[in-house]
Each structure stands twice: as structure tokens, then as C-alpha cells.
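tool_call: predict_structure(chain=1)
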Amino acid sequence: MELSSEFVAYEPNTIVTFRFSGSVPGEGSYLFESTQEGTRVTSRVQMQPRGFSRLAEPLIAANLRRQMEANLPALKGKLENPASGISS
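tool_result:
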């Protein structure tokens, strides 16, 4: 699945909002909240499936969830240990 993203709102240490277009357009955000343990990150994604993608919506949502669960621990590690660098 290919898409393009445009960041549409940014409040430092609070929220980043973006829109994406492609086969399944939509909008997403990352909300950052301070807690006693550190920072809580809440990710929200709203998709607007069209055509065939409407049928595949549950599969797309499950795939996004799996990707987030797999990638967020690595991001957490990079943020907590910046000396480790970020590879692409």
C-alpha cells in the first residue's frame, strides 16, 4: 500500500497531526502526555476507505496495529538512548 503524508498541525510536546492520501486516504495523530513514568504516546488513525479497500478495511486496520506494536518498542529505545543513532 502506497501513500503520501502531509503534516497539518504541530504543537511541540503535545500533538502531531497528519493527513495521508493514496489507496486509503485518512488522517492520523500522535498525542504526547506526560506521566509519572515518562511520556504516554497515543496514536490515532482514521481511514476513509473507498471501493475495494472498504472490503479490506479490517485487514488494513489489523496490519496497521501489528506494525505499530512491532515498531513502537524500537522507537522507544531510540528515544531513550539517542546515542544509539537512528538507522533508515
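agent: The first helix runs from residue 52 to 55. Proceeding to next step.
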